[in-house]
Design a protein that fits this description.
- The structure is a homodimer of 422-residue chains.
- With 422 residues, chain A is α/β, with parallel strands linked by helices.
- In chain A, the strands form 3 sheets. Chain A has an 8-stranded mixed sheet with strand order 2-9-8-7-6-3-4-5, sandwiched between helices. The first copy, chain A, has a 3-stranded antiparallel sheet with strand order 10-11-13, covered by helices on one side. Chain A has a two-stranded parallel ribbon with strand order 1-12.
- The longest helix of chain A is centred in the last third of the chain and has 30 residues, at 301-330.
- Chain A folds into 2 domains: 9-44 and 305-421, Aspartate Aminotransferase, domain 1, CATH 3.90.1150; 57-299, 3-Layer(aba) Sandwich (Aspartate Aminotransferase, domain 2), CATH 3.40.640.
- Chain A has 13 helices and 13 strands.
- Chains A and B meet through helix 4, helix 5, helix 9 and helix 10 of A and helix 4, helix 5, helix 9 and helix 10 of B.
């Protein structure tokens, strides 16, 4: 559908005036609404307060006192839980502190300083290139930028990254060392990787022996509706003879507390052995009391499933409100499209080319903070200036509704200004 | 005094027999005693259990909900506490997760990958050399070893490292990039740095513009008797025109929970700004709930002082028992000397040259685990094979006493075997 199909120029001018009026109404309300970051709301956080309702000892099933040094790779209770979340064995898991991002970062550090599996450390290469399915997660790209990698944008499809492009690139270029993946409810599109994509990632030929998939399974159990499953990539890598190809990551940031949960990574036994060796020099251990309290609270996979249903109950109305308001205001105009994810933390909104920055600016004027336009692409530059990430979880429902109403007006205004100017 | 002065060879042979008998008595007891690591004992850990007796909210004085993302450099309540411990401003402090070792390690990572203050990243240099006052902390040296630095052993004196040697080395060699310091109750000798040493470290001319002092103030408030103070090195660096020279570290590992406390670093405002910039890409934030619970429990410097007095009450009898038993058994024989620290976690025992390894081996045979001989020197090699680190904090008092009795016998046996063989 083309932009404002069926509208005459006169009608567009009138519509623009109407939007300007509505915009100025909202402006006068001095709103202060924030849809910028994927943060859980207070109600969600309250679900986990009982973690600290505990007066017993801190002795693990193996007899380790969590209040003292030891177990650099974490307590077994927490390993088991992440093993279930990620579909791997406990022995494949390393449990850390609260931040999985930190574990990803440190994984890059080790690759840069010490190299992977006897390969040249990435820090000694002229250049390292990294595949960045986009729109994607800005904090992934920020790590690449800090390490001065060349980021290669890979179009993100409904079932994962464009695998034809990925396969072609990695086959030829030894300096391409890895790819970012958020396989379940990808940030921000909500895409779930298909079995075919997982298999191709696991099995593809790579020129670099130390090519690695950074499998950020941040939303593994964050379903809004039915339970979704993705193919187990560690198994697939093993089957394909590329057992060491994948580093998996997960955390309870959006299960319990954002920033104060428990994070973990998982990989082949060989990788785990090498990583533990390095980690044991970096620190004596991670915060095991936090691990212990979490394991006690979450119990097991069934415990997590029940807990996540409570999250979904809070989040479903928010996601649905966004979807409803976008549909009501923008459907049929040919100026925007958006995703309706079945889980995760984001909705991805694509607006008419060249308008995303303008939309975000206008929203800001009206007191609605959005993730900066472009943030979902490498270097913060969306080549088509189209994509806007909506984070509906944090604001209370009523505020969220106002914010999305404002957003819709801003989309129309930005597009109308552009096409009437052209 | 020379070894076994005044003893005839016959007397030495008899003494050796006697020791062998006593040794075999202990062996039969199947002891399992551990004096290897500087771990707090259960009684000490119990002092902080009340940290988790809390049912209120997690809102900081600045209104931040610790259960959610934010504040990558920590909450202000905890910054203030570390500012007091380290004698700096709150704005000089970055609060992290639980491990100060991890913060030191990450500081090396940043120097290696990104360089300091615009200088060449250490990872791009042919070599990096590091000054290691010894006997020192094995985990410091292990970091240097992992990064493949050249470690230069600096003799540790009663008031700090041999500064004549330090000054001469750093003046000439641009590849010497830093020095490890544990200024208060140094691990393992218990030495407290004199004002003169602090001033010379702060003021000395260094060939490398990016020379850094890693000031691991792990035992800043860990007094066994009177309160000791060291000169504030950040002030001294500032006065000397070397404001950016020092990175300070501290943690509550041995105030609250080992491995699950709170760690922090402090430095000049310029350094702090640069570090924060990097950290904000590495993670969204550290575990603020743990910071919040700690700040609430410790309150302020007076709170810490009162709390540390309780630790001292538990530890004083242990340190004094070790000292008494060593004196009773080994004084006047000319075969060993040891420190009597006024705080910290260790006692340093020097035995007759070439005997330390043998002593540790023998102790092991009798069921007493000590830190491996050599561990207190770079590369785990004590050039004189003399130094043994005693960690008296962890074992219960009665076990500790047995362990030290065994140790004394092992010292005598090792020395007697050596000199009777010679």
């Amino acid at each position: 559908m083309s932009v404002y199909e069926g509208f005459s120029k006169q009608q567009l001018i009138i519509r623009k005036k109407e939007m300007e009026q509505r915009f100025s109404c909202y402006r006068k309300q001095n709103l202060k609404l924030d849809m910028s970051r994927g943060k859980p709301c207070s109600e969600q956080l309250d679900l986990s307060n009982a973690i600290f309702e505990y007066n017993g000892d801190f002795i693990t099933e193996e007899g380790c006192d969590c209040r003292n040094y030891g177990l650099p790779d974490g307590i077994s209770e927490m390993k088991k839980i992440f093993a279930e979340i990620l579909g791997v064995g406990s022995e494949n898991v390393i449990v850390g502190n609260s931040s999985s991002l930190n574990m990803m970062y440190d994984t890059f550090v080790r690759a840069y300083l010490f190299g992977i599996n006897g390969c040249e450390p990435w820090g000694r290469l002229e250049k390292v290139r990294f595949l960045c399915p986009s729109p994607g997660y800005d904090r992934h790209f920020a790590i690449c930028e800090q390490f001065n990698m060349d980021m290669i944008t890979i179009p993100m499809k409904e079932d994962g990254p464009d695998m034809d492009m990925v396969e072609e690139l990695v086959r030829e270029d030894e300096l391409i060392k890895g790819i970012w993946c958020i396989p379940m409810y990808s940030n921000p599109t909500g895409a779930v990787y298909s079995d075919d994509v997982v298999k191709r990632l696991a099995g593809m030929k790579t020129k670099a022996a130390d090519f690695r998939i950074f499998w950020d399974n941040a939303y593994a159990v964050h379903h809004l509706y039915e339970e979704n499953k993705i193919l187990n990539i560690l198994d697939e890598c093993q089957k394909a003879g590329n057992a060491d190809r994948v580093y998996m990551f997960a955390s309870t940031a959006k299960i319990t507390f954002a920033g104060s949960g428990v994070a973990a990574m998982a990989s082949s036994l060989d990788n785990v052995r090498q990583i533990k060796e390095k980690i044991s020099i970096q620190k004596i251990c991670s915060n095991k009391i936090n691990q212990f309290l979490h394991a006690r609270f979450l119990k097991d996979y069934d415990g997590i499933r029940a807990h996540m249903e409570k999250h979904a109950k809070i989040l479903r109305p928010k996601f649905e409100a966004v979807s409803d308001i976008l549909s009501r205001n923008l459907s049929g105009l040919g100026i925007a499209s958006w995703t309706t994810p079945r889980g995760g933390y984001f909705i991805s909104l694509d607006v008419h080319e060249g308008c995303a920055k303008k939309v975000v600016e206008k929203a800001k004027e009206a007191g609605v903070t959005l993730t900066p336009a472009g943030a979902t692409f490498p270097y913060g530059r969306d080549p088509n200036d189209r994509n806007i990430r909506i984070a509906p979880t944090y604001p209370p429902l009523e505020e969220l509704k106002s914010a999305v109403e404002v957003l819709c007006i801003c989309v129309e205004l930005a597009v109308l200004e552009k096409i009437l100017q052209d």
